[in-house]
Design brief:
Layout: H1 3-21, H2 25-31, E1 37-42, H3 49-53, E2 60-65, H4 75-87, E3 92-98, H5 102-107, H6 116-129, H7 131-135, H8 140-161, H9 163-172, E4 176-182, E5 189-195
The structure holds cobalt (II) ion.
Length: 215
């Protein structure tokens, strides 16, 4: 059987199982989605957001890209963020990185990877910001792990810098921001950092005087 046909076959079985368990499952979900979480994760096939968190369709709004980046010129990410924060009113935004991330690994190297170079600049910036800490780690594997963690934490800070998040904090006291890292070799998620809505932040990035906009 062609490999892609297996996916279609599995889908039929899955849909039947869902209806067996909960006859209203699809009719309910087709009417609305009310996810509490926005997940910003890596595109890596080994880090499936729903599966590793034991959640079902309808529970997590998902954005994935190489190395789970929050890039403030990325129209795709910004559109997802604005929709999740302002329309879906998500309570939590989770940036989930993972050890062994190929994007982070590539940003530690010097190969010319074409257009991917431009994406990796953002991770190289994280490296530069934390150069002293990273260079003090003798083991290359440990340095790689630490850059994965630092990268997640910087992306969480980048969320807090955005006017989308700051406006929502002012208007509704949410969402809360979380940085997590997933272990490919044990399947476990480790929380790294958390920024509660309305937390103090570097004043350089603070926006003031939000006017409530009716949407
Ligand atoms: Co990755």
């Amino acid at each position: 059987m062609e490999s892609y046909r297996r996916l279609l076959k599995n889908n039929q079985i899955w849909a039947e199982n869902c209806v067996d368990r909960d006859p209203e499952f699809f009719s309910r979900l087709s009417k609305l989605q009310e996810p509490e979480f926005l997940w910003i994760g890596c595109s890596d096939s080994r880090v499936p957001s729903n599966e590793i968190t034991g959640t079902r369709p309808g529970e997590i709004f998902v954005h994935r890209n190489i190395a789970n980046m929050v890039v403030n010129t990325d129209l795709n990410l910004l559109s997802v963020l604005q929709f999740a924060v302002e329309m879906l009113n998500v309570k939590h935004i989770i940036v989930c990185g993972h050890y062994g991330c190929g994007g982070v690994k590539a940003a530690m190297g010097h190969d010319d990877l074409g257009i991917i170079n431009k994406w990796l600049y953002n991770i190289k910036d994280v490296r530069r910001m934390h150069a002293a800490e990273l260079e003090a780690i003798p083991s290359e594997d440990k340095r790689f792990d630490r850059l994965v963690e630092l990268n997640v934490m910087e992306q969480v800070k980048d969320l807090a810098k955005s006017s989308i998040v700051q406006r929502a904090w002012a208007e509704r006291g949410g969402p809360h921001l979380h940085g997590w890292v997933y272990g490919l070799n044990d399947g476990l998620i480790r929380p790294l950092c958390e920024i509660e809505a309305g937390s103090e932040m570097d004043p350089i990035y603070r926006f003031d005087g939000f006017v409530k906009v009716e949407r």
